[in-house]
Every structure is written in C-alpha cells, then in structure tokens.
Design brief:
This protein is of the alpha/beta class and 259 residues long. It has a single domain, classed as 3-Layer(aba) Sandwich (Rossmann fold), CATH 3.40.50.150. The chain is built from seven helices and eleven strands. A seven-stranded mixed β-sheet has the order 6-5-4-7-8-11-10, with helices on both faces. Helix 2 packs across helix 4. The longest helix has 19 residues.
Length: 259
C-alpha cells in the first residue's frame, strides 16, 4: 500500500478522514481542495492486479488451471439483467447498436462480459474486444464469446493505436488505481464520433457511504464531471439511477464523447 495525492486536483496533504477500518487496513479520505473521496493509502498497480486475481471473487470455485470452474447461476442472472438495463440506456444514445451496424465495441473491466454478450445479441456483426484484470475469467469469456479479442488486464498498459465506436466501462473507474490515466487512455481509444458509457457508484447516495477495498474512489456528479473535463471528455448525458431501473440514485450513469 502507498499514500497518494488526490487524483483529481493533485492535493498532497489536505485530506479529511471519513472512514477507517483497521481490520481491513482501510482508510477513506476526502480532499479539502476538490471534494474527491478515495482510499488512502491505496494499492500499488501490482498489488491491485494481485487483489483481482487472488482475492476478488475468491468464493467462486476454480479448476486446477486457476480458471473459474463454476459460476453460480444467481450471479449470472444478475449480471445479465444488469447488462440488459445498461445497454438499453446506452443504445438510446448509440443507435448503431439497435440498427445492427458493423461496429467495434470495447468493454473495460468486462468480468463475465455480459455487456458484450448483450451488444452481440443486438448487433451480431460487431467486433468485440475486452480488458479484464482477472485472468481467472478469461476461459469463461472465450467459451461464451469465442471471437472476442482479449486485449490485456488494464487500459493503461495497452500499447498501439486502437479505435472503437463504443466503449463500455461499468463499475470500473472507482476500482482503478489511477482514474485519470485510465480515462486519458480511454480518450485515445474512442473514435472521433464514438460514445462511451461510464457507470460508477454515486458517492453522494446513501449506498455511497459503504466503504471497502474493492472501491478505491467514491465519485459524485461534481467530481466525476470535473475529472471527465480534465481528461478531455464531453458529457452528453449524466443521470443518477438505480442499479437496474431508473428508480434510486445509487449509480451515476454518464454518456461521454471526445471534445
């Protein structure tokens, strides 16, 4: 673990402690300069990858090769239900999905890749790509979507020039060790007329005060908007909504494009 500056404004010391859990070695602070709430000290990039490959979803059984051997049906049902709701929202701004255009679509932090599967169902000719830090999920993804291109474990580590019509990043930016670097890389990978769906926990909601090590940042509409501007991304639409339905405010749904 390491102490960090504020990822939004660069402040190094002026933080207020908002939560501490010694049993989890968890301390959450809020920047006095810009209001961003985040875990500090936090993971190094190497520790973060280890967390996702050894601790995250550790309750799901694995095979001798380290891949997941069985995904509980109730989790699959939830992931697929969420993906349908999210793509319903995204497709209102991205007509090409519903029209079945030949598109290139990237899902960042794809997990079970339920969002890509939902896009493929609506748009069979699209080209799919994924970034996922948890290697235990790779065989599961490939079995379900044989033609998906697995690009790597983090956006920041990707080399080369790749452009995508649409990018999906659901429950990602609050989990990355460096949201600014991740969003700047996302910017370079988004086509000039492309759209990106970003969904993150709403730190201003009641659910936003439930802190743990799987969420390193707790954005509000204000801090998220400022971060997106910093990374040269224009907000097309920003809403607070529920996990699956329009009711509730525990998630921030954002559609962005390049400036």
């Amino acid at each position: 673990m390491r102490k960090i500056s504020c990822n939004l404004c660069g402040e190094k010391r002026e933080f207020d402690q908002v939560h501490k859990d010694r049993s989890l070695d968890l301390c959450v602070v809020r920047c006095r300069g810009c209001g961003l709430t985040f875990v500090n000290p936090t993971f190094t990039p190497q520790e973060h990858l280890k967390y996702y490959n050894e601790i995250y979803w550790s309750d799901i059984p694995t095979s001798g090769t380290g891949s997941y051997s069985f995904i509980p049906p109730d989790r699959v049902e939830l992931w697929e239900k969420r993906a349908k709701a999210h793509i319903d929202y995204f497709s209102t701004f991205c007509k090409g999905i519903e029209e079945g255009a030949k598109l290139s679509v990237l899902e960042v932090g794809c997990g079970y890749a339920a969002h890509l599967e939902e896009v493929k169902h609506r748009c069979p000719e699209c080209l799919l790509a994924a970034v996922e830090p948890n290697r235990r999920m790779y065989n599961v993804i490939k079995k379900r979507l044989p033609k998906v291109q697995l690009l790597g474990r983090t956006l920041e580590a990707l080399g080369g020039r790749m452009l995508f019509n649409y990018i999906i990043a659901v429950d990602v930016i609050e989990r990355t060790v460096d949201p600014t670097s991740a969003l700047r890389r996302l910017h370079t990978m988004l086509a000039h007329d492309g759209m990106c769906l970003i969904i993150t926990h709403n730190g201003a909601s009641r659910a936003g005060t439930v802190y743990d090590l799987s969420h390193l940042y707790y954005f509000t509409e204000a801090t998220l908007s400022r971060l997106l501007r910093k990374c040269h991304l224009d907000v097309v639409r920003m809403d607070t909504r529920g996990e699956i339905s329009a009711g509730g405010d525990e998630r921030i749904y954002t559609i962005v494009k390049k400036k």
